[in-house]
Amino acid sequence: MSSCRQKKLTTSNKPLSADGAMVSLQHGEWGEVRTLALGDVQAAVQEQDTWVVHTKDITYFSRLVDVRQFEHLSLVEFHRRGLEQAGKWQP
């Protein structure tokens, strides 16, 4: 029912997660809601004898549109977060 694609920016600690979920619309039709999550990775800390990494300041952007429209519309969130200059993508 859902597909998941994750990528990380190599020149910063700005993880990106994109996902899609099928939702029931009217009259028995289905549509895919696409969601983008962006956050800031914090430095690793030790908690109870285990090293952990937390992400904070997570923002979400979701739309029920085709993939091309979603790519275009999500640019606003990329620019707001300053990610248009973040560097190379790493799958």
Provide a brief overview of the structure.
The protein contains one helix and seven strands. The protein has 91 residues and is an alpha+beta fold. The protein has one domain.
The SS-based structural class is alpha+beta
Q: Biggest sheet: strands side by side, in what order? A: 6-3-2-1-7
Estimate the helix proportion, in percent.
Answer: 10-25%
As a percent range, the share of strand residues is: over 45%
Give the SSE string: EEEEEEHE
Low-confidence stretches: 1-11
Q: Write down the overall mean pLDDT.
A: 81
**Intertermini distance:** 22 Å
Total domain units: 1
Largest sheet: 5 strands, antiparallel
Number of helices: 1
Gross morphology is flat
Strand segment tally: 7
Estimated radius of gyration: 16 Å
